[in-house]
User: Which sequence fits this backbone?
């Protein structure tokens, strides 16, 4: 049931972002800064510190995606992948909401682990607060 709620939350966020246009990063973002910010989130995930990850979410999302839900969604992936090795690649793109005009930065990090890879997609707002986190 919890996984069902998480999937619904991810679906809603994905639909919201589909109403955005993908472009280069807006001038308010620095590519190196957003990539480093995203890597910091992945470090917290790799440390299984889901409370700290939840604390990095934008305030209006913290109740919608709890630390317990993050744990349920991510812990199995981490256990199956083994220990973190390094990043295979990283990329940052900009998005602008068509409905609100708000700019977002989305970072894709491909993490190499002992037994496989995990692709993290992390979206942040102009204040570098996390508004989206997806791992596959």
Assistant:
């Amino acid at each position: 049931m919890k996984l069902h709620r998480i999937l619904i939350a991810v679906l809603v966020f994905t639909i919201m972002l589909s109403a955005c246009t993908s472009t280069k990063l807006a001038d308010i973002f620095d590519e190196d800064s957003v990539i480093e910010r995203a890597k910091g989130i992945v470090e917290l995930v790799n440390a299984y510190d889901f409370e700290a990850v939840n604390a990095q979410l934008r305030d209006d999302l913290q109740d919608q995606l709890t630390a317990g839900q993050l744990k349920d969604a991510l812990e199995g992936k981490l256990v199956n992948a083994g220990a973190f090795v390094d990043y295979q690649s990283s990329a940052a793109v900009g998005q602008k909401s068509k409905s609100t005009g708000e700019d977002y930065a989305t970072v894709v990090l491909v993490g190499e682990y002992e037994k496989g890879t995990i692709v993290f997609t992390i979206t942040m707002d102009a204040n570098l607060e996390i508004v989206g986190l997806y791992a596959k």
Q: What stands out?
A: The two ends are 20 Å apart (CA to CA). Residues 3-21 have pLDDT under 50 and may be disordered.
